[in-house]
Amino acid sequence: MKNVSASLRLTLWFSGIFLCGFVLFGVVMWIDLAYSLGKGRDRTLNRRATRFIELLRATRTDSPSRRQARFAQLADVIPEGNLIQIRTPDGRRVFPTDDPSPGFPWPAWTPVARPEYSTVNVNGHPTRVLRFPAAADFPMVVLVAGQLEDNRNMLARFTAGLAGAIPAMLVLSALCGYFLGRRVLQPVDQITGTLHSISIGNLSRRLPVSGAGDELQRLAETCNQMLERLQDAVNRINRFTADASHELRSPVALIRAVAEYALRNPEIDIESKEAFSEILAESVEAGLLLEDMLTLARADAGHGTPVTEPLELAELVEDIGARLRPLAEAKKQSVIVRTSGPAWITGERVSVRRLLSILLDNAIKYTPAEGRIQMELTTAKSRAVVAVTDNGIGIPESLLPRIFDRFARADPSRGEVSGTGLGLAIAKWIAGVHGATLTAESREQQGSTFRVEFPLVEPGTPQVTLGHKTEQVS
Ligand code: ADP
To answer: Cα Rg for the chain, rounded, in angstroms?
Structure first.
């Protein structure tokens, strides 16, 4: 039963139990019916024998011909009336005087103490025979027989009906099981769906609580309590990260200022110059890392103002291309920027600039000298797509699925330039805030393409709130 959905398992269980119950019910009914029919037949034979004995008594003083007439009369009104024999213990016929059913396998004429039943086969037809004890005042043997064919037919019809009903009941029970399973498990599916949509960015979401007081309500409440605790813990970590980054900014800025001041001294000796240059480079790195951490901590905390401004992307793309081009030229790389007319989105200028700068800056950083980089803006189906493509070192296949995670960086042995490992995480977050999707395709040593797709808006349409920008993105 591995890898089988719970509703299918429930359906199978339901159908199995229903089928077993139905078969058991059928078997019990069959046995009961067979017993009742058999008993009924025996009672009928008993009644017939009794009526003949009563007639024997009543006609004791009648002449033999009148007696025969009365017996014949009674036999006429009884179905299978000719299957009656009354004889003296020595076998002399009392009624009927001649045998209307020759060859019938009557049992012996010996008298019995109590009614005795037996079943005989007459030309393939089962027949029940009753040997009735003779009364003390009438020492005669009464034998009555009746066919069991009707009983057999009725049982056969019952069995056929039962066999026909089983597949129908099976289908019905499977449908009922599936319907019940779906009904019972639907809230579980809803809970799963909601839990799926909850991530570190929207931990404030809660599951709907039904109020039915059942297991599902308790499950939803327990999940909500767990989310509460998680949100609390994440908030504390965010606060700590934001506070730590904020507090560290001043000392790092001071270290950087001191290093710059020392390097401006024309009389600085070579060794000190090297040491201060290293301090300056490290402090610049640390400053960038702190800014990125602060940005993400504030993003997680949901600080900021709603994004509602209309923004023209083509002009922004051209501008970013122009601003970063000198970096590429320093590495003798060619940068092609292509746009296809104005494309309006709802976006916050500084944030979108940061997003596209991260992508283009990475392309320049991770592409060797004389490589090719392209930033292209296209519009299609109410989407504006900015694709940044390079023919650089590419991203290892193992890293690609988590490339947007915080601090995800390729193995330093690839001889990569320094970085914080937070740029793409920030880019992804900015894309999310703008209702955009950011995706990456890459092959090692062949190059990468980062694609960000924004929803297009008509210029002049009412502005909508997409998400929250932080005041710190810059
Ligand atoms: P950083 O560049 O500061 O290390 P990012 O989050 O911007 O941080 O990038 C994470 C990692 O993704 C980089 O360290 C690099 O290994 C890989 N990467 C990003 N962009 C590219 C690219 N265009 N080509 C190759 N690798 C890239």
So the answer is: 49
